[in-house]
Design goal:
alpha/beta, Ubiquitin-like (UB roll), 3-stranded mixed beta sheet, 44% helix, flat, binds guanosine-5'-triphosphate, binds magnesium ion
């Protein structure tokens, strides 16, 4: 899963990226805007994987991973050119963490006046909406040109109809996230990877001393339908340089319950509606990430496309049942070892073995 850290210039994106990944990317106030993303991969710590590993003693234990991509600040000029390589790169991410500057810094304010977190949020949305609108309008122009040349298939007409709906939404200043779409319409639009369709988490980046004072801003952003969190970015960056026991003491002082990595993992899973299932055995214990509501075939496909293609049954039991009863043998005796078909909706914490034939 790839998550983009985005936002207006100098909002603290790279500072937070460093805290998350233990990286050392430059956060020089006066450095010119970067042209590429910083990329870092973080393992998802899940104690369930550790316990499964202790039971099965596999040769390999593989955790889920999140890739964080820290982009340079967005300037309005970019939207004029939606083919911009950076924009295409940003679009490839599953979700956005939008960093909003809420710490005071007079020098930075002089360089890039940011406005309030709410203003930054709406400036960013406007930017995304404009970029999407340009893409949608261009495509409609192309379709119309095609009509004149006699290319008028039902599929193209359907696409045009959906794109007009998209334009109407965007012209009204509304992100596509709120647009109700049928499965067919959704499918037609998927290839565009519209910005304003991506799930977004507003991250209010504040000074350490103001960590507890921003509940009102958080609530205001949430009331507009966004997921929101407060973070003390630079404080977290400093903590990431300490050993973990020391960091825990400082963190608890401020009343922050978990490390930034754990916190981000939970936030990102929730934002994207992701859950984990596990595969176990003597060779490998492994955590896999799927979307809530995915069925057994989709889950099998994550492991290997052959498993989805030749899917017969999923042998399944619950992680917590294994912990409670101690062994697969005990689960079989208790009837907690199930055989599920293609339509089975996989749940967080399922342990799965796919039977297949190709
Ligand atoms: N006081 C304070 N300063 C911060 C905080 N987070 C970042 N800064 C400072 O803000 C400046 C910019 O931080 P960066 O993390 O580079 O910001 P950025 O969003 O990555 O900047 P661009 O990539 O250039 O858009 C640096 O001087 C940081 O030290 C914070 O939580 N508190
Ligand atoms: Mg940066």
């Amino acid at each position: 899963m790839n998550i983009a850290l985005v936002g207006l210039p100098k909002s603290g994106k790279t500072t937070i990226f460093n805290a998350l990944t233990g990286g050392n990317a430059s956060t020089d106030k006066y450095a010119p805007a970067a042209t590429q993303a910083n990329v870092g991969v973080v393992e998802v710590t899940d104690e369930r994987v550790a316990r499964l590993s202790a039971i099965y003693q596999p040769k390999k234990t593989i955790h889920a991973q999140i890739e964080y991509r820290d982009y340079p600040g967005i300037f309005s000029a970019h939207a004029e050119n939606p083919d911009n390589a950076l924009y295409s790169d940003i679009k490839a991410n599953a979700g956005f963490v939008l960093v909003l500057r809420a710490f005071a810094d007079e020098e930075l304010e002089g360089l890039f006046a940011a406005g309030s977190p709410i203003q930054q949020l709406s400036a960013f949305e406007d930017e995304m909406i404009l970029a999407d609108l340009i893409v949608a309008e261009r495509r409609i122009e192309k379709i119309e040109l095609g009509y004149k040349r006699g290319v008028k298939t039902p599929a193209v007409q359907f696409e045009e109809k959906v794109l007009r709906q998209v334009c109407q939404c965007l012209q009204g200043g509304r992100p596509l996230r709120g647009l109700q779409l049928h499965a067919e319409e959704e499918k037609t639009l998927r290839g565009y990877r519209f910005f304003s369709q991506k799930p977004i988490l507003a991250l209010i980046n504040c000074a350490e001393g103001e960590y507890h004072d921003l509940g009102g801003v958080k609530a205001e952003i949430e009331s507009k339908g966004y997921a929101a969190e407060v973070i003390a970015g630079r404080f977290e960056e400093e903590l990431s340089k300490l050993d973990s026991d020391e960091a825990t003491i400082f963190r608890e002082d401020l009343g922050i319950p978990e490390s930034i990595r754990e916190r981000f993992t939970h936030l990102c899973y929730r934002l994207l509606g992701y859950i984990s299932f596990f595969t176990v055995g003597p060779d490998e214990v492994r955590a896999w990430t799927i979307e809530e509501g995915d069925n057994a075939v989709t889950a099998a496909g994550k492991i290997h496309s052959d498993l989805a293609r030749g899917f017969i049954r999923a042998e399944t039991f619950r992680y917590e049942d294994l912990i409670a009863h101690g062994s697969e043998k005990a689960l079989r005796e208790k009837g907690l070892f199930r055989l599920e078909g293609k339509d089975y909706i996989v749940r967080d914490g399922d342990v799965i073995n796919v039977r297949f034939s190709v």
